[in-house]
């Protein structure tokens, strides 16, 4: 037998070449540089860093970026790589997701900012990064929702619901108090059963009870709220005002324009008659009876005066109708906004009746058509729903306060002062004009002043109990809901967002919902999720940032051959 050693297959001892991500590369380079500064040889430094010398030579042979040397050195450190990832994620987050721009805009930002020297700015690389970012946003938001739901206290919800019609029909439901989106569900129908199924999915895992739903008068929504949920349906005040506006606004505006035209024509006719008389007297005339200028001028002047009165009346009708439509918003409150006193359902019904009586009188004076009067009658029928909502509000408030089992003086202070003051503060925050905002806040402070006196019985309670009373009073003030404007605003946002895109994909819709709930903050620094779950949560951006890959290094630009003219002569 031969003494030659047997041929041993060494493939089992081979190890795949490790693939280092960008952060590993920066850490190895930093470790080697630090070891060499401490006096070690390159071989010893590379051995200690755990990387092959050939790999190190390949890394060092990479072309230097066309950027300042200090910045180039920084981005090759571990801290620099982490900073590059934050910049890239923030660019996609702010420009692509919240700003609604496309991936090409992010690529353009990287080129113009000079970051393309350190980050691959091609469309393919950034499109893949953007898709991964959206997946991570949806995943992180879902995990946050599940974690917060486990520890949330029980809440009674007043939800606002409506449909939107972007890329098919979506059923949208939002908590009216916190502005937390509960569902944005694609559906082929908007029946009561479809709404109920969608809401059950949106409320899954949440410790909540729906006590009120605010929407329009669609039959499916009415049956969904009242029959399936067993909750109170609050009519959206805007839809009442919209019906009145349909009946009055356009017709009265047209009548005013016609009256202005008639007045202008009558004035021109009167001026023409006066000018004709003056022209007649400037010329010499033979014998004969002159024209009856006085009678003509008097007749034209009378017509002009009548037209002016008709125009003034049309203008007055339109201005009064506009004021009456706005007055519905001032009247429909549980606490009247002039003195802050509680308004009984009977008082609200009487005030609404007065407004409609005057609107009907204007409609009769303006001789509106039967079709327009039908809109006014439809709006008038909704007054019973507004009165029922006020009755529901005071019933719920009394039930919540009585359940606290407080002393008689403290309970009365809650009902007469604390809850009205907090409600007025909320109305002031929604006011768009400075004068009513300041007046309502002053009125709220006036109602709170007696409760802040040391002699008041509520001050004898411990701070924790007072805080709990404030919390309950705030929840009671939030029970009065008369608008689904949060859903209308959401639908408008989606319409504007889609305007710059071909469509809203299911993933993009989920991303926008996640950002709305967990990322967008109000001026007080809270997100919708914080207000809804009554607890803070980690930053969604930071959660997603830690899950994203490191930015790809820019590839070497391969020179493209120059384009030759089509009519280059060919050698014979």
**Quantity of strands, as a count:** 5
Work out the helix count. Answer: 21
How much of the sequence lies in strands comes to: 5-15%
Characterize the main sheet.
5 strands, mixed
Described by the principal axes of the CA atoms, the overall outline is: extended
Q: List segments where confidence is low: pLDDT < 50 over at least 5 consecutive residues.
A: 1-18
Which H/E pattern describes the elements? HHHHHHHEEEHEHEHHHHHHHHHHHH
Helix content: 55-70%
Which structural class is indicated by helix and strand composition?
A: mainly alpha
Whole-Å distance between the termini?
73 Å
The mean pLDDT is: 88
Region (Disordered): 552-572
InterPro entries: DUF6399
Characterise the protein shown here.
The chain has helices at residues 22-37, 42-49, 53-60, 69-75, 78-98, 103-113, 123-151, 192-202, 219-228, 237-282, 293-331, 345-365, 370-381, 383-402, 408-430, 434-448, 463-477, 485-499, 506-518, 528-533, 540-547, and strands at 155-164, 170-175, 181-186, 208-215, 232-235. It has 572 residues and is mainly α. The chain contains 21 helices and five strands. The longest helix is centred in the middle third of the chain and has 46 residues, at 237-282. A five-stranded mixed β-sheet has the order 3-2-1-4-5, with helices on both faces. Among the domains are: 22-133, no CATH class; 237-282 and 292-399, no CATH class; 404-482, no CATH class.
């Amino acid at each position: 037998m031969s003494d030659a050693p047997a041929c041993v297959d060494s493939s089992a001892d081979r190890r795949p070449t490790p693939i280092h991500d960008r952060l590993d590369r920066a850490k190895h380079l930093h470790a080697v540089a630090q070891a060499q500064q401490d006096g070690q040889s390159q071989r010893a430094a590379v051995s200690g860093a755990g990387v092959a010398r050939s790999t190190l030579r390949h890394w060092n042979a990479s072309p230097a970026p066309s950027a300042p040397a200090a910045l180039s050195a920084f981005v090759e450190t571990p801290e620099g790589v982490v900073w590059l990832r934050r910049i890239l994620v923030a660019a996609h987050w702010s420009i692509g997701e919240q700003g609604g721009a496309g991936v090409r805009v992010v690529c353009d930002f990287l080129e113009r900012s000079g970051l393309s020297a350190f980050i691959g700015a091609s469309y393919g690389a950034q499109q893949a990064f953007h898709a991964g970012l959206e997946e991570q946003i949806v995943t992180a938001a879902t995990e946050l929702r599940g974690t917060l739901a486990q520890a949330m206290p029980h809440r009674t919800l007043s939800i606002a619901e409506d449909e939107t019609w972007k890329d098919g029909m979506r059923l949208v439901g939002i908590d009216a108090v916190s502005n937390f989106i509960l569902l944005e569900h694609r559906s082929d129908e908007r029946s009561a059963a479809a709404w109920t199924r969608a809401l059950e999915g949106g409320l899954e895992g949440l410790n909540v009870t729906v006590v009120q739903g605010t929407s329009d008068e669609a039959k499916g929504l009415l049956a969904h709220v009242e029959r399936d949920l067993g909750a109170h349906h609050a009519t959206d005040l805007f839809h009442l005002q919209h019906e009145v506006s349909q009946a009055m606004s356009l017709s009265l505006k047209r009548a005013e324009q016609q009256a202005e035209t008639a007045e202008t024509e009558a004035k021109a006719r009167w001026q023409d008659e006066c000018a004709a008389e003056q022209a007649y007297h400037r010329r010499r005339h033979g014998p004969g009876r002159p024209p009856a200028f006085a009678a003509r001028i008097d007749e034209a002047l009378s017509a002009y005066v009548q037209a002016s009165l008709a125009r003034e009346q049309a203008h007055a009708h339109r201005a009064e109708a506009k004021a009456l439509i706005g007055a519905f918003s001032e009247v429909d409150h549980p606490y009247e906004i002039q003195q802050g006193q509680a308004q009984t359902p009977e008082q609200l019904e009487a005030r609404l009746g007065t407004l409609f009586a005057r609107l009907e009188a204007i409609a009769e004076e303006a001789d509106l058509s039967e079709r327009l009067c039908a809109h006014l009658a439809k709006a008038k029928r909704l007054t019973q729903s507004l009165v029922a909502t006020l009755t529901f509000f005071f019933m719920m408030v009394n039930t919540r306060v009585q359940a606290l089992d407080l002393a008689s003086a403290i309970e009365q202070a809650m009902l007469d002062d604390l809850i009205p003051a907090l409600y007025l503060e909320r109305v002031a925050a929604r006011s768009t004009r400075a004068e009513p905002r300041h007046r309502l806040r002053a009125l709220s402070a006036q109602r709170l002043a007696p409760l802040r006196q040391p002699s008041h019985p509520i001050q004898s309670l411990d701070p924790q109990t007072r805080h709990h009373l404030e919390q309950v009073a705030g929840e009671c003030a939030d029970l009065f809901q008369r608008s689904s404007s949060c859903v209308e605003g959401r639908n408008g946002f989606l319409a504007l967002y889609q305007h710059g895109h071909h469509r809203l994909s299911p993933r993009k819709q989920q991303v926008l919902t996640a950002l709305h709930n967990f990322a967008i903050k109000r001026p007080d620094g809270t997100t919708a999720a914080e207000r809804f779950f009554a607890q803070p949560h980690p930053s969604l951006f930071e959660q997603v940032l830690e899950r994203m890959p490191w930015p790809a290094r820019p590839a070497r630009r391969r020179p493209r051959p120059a384009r030759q003219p089509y009519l280059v002569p060919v050698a014979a």
